Amino acid sequence: DSGVTQTPKHLITATGQRVTLRCSPRSGDLSVYWYQQSLDQGLQFLIQYYNGEERAKGNILERFSAQQFPDLHSELNLSSLELGDSALYFCASSEAPLYEQYFGPGTRLTVT
Amino acid sequence: AQTVTQSQPEMSVQEAETVTLSCTYDTSESDYYLFWYKQPPSRQMILVIRQEAYKQQNATENRFSVNFQKAAKSFSLKISDSQLGDAAMYFCAYRSARGSQGNLIFGKGTKLSVKP
Question: Which residues of chain A have a CB within 8 Å of the CB of B108?
Answer without folding.
Answer: 42
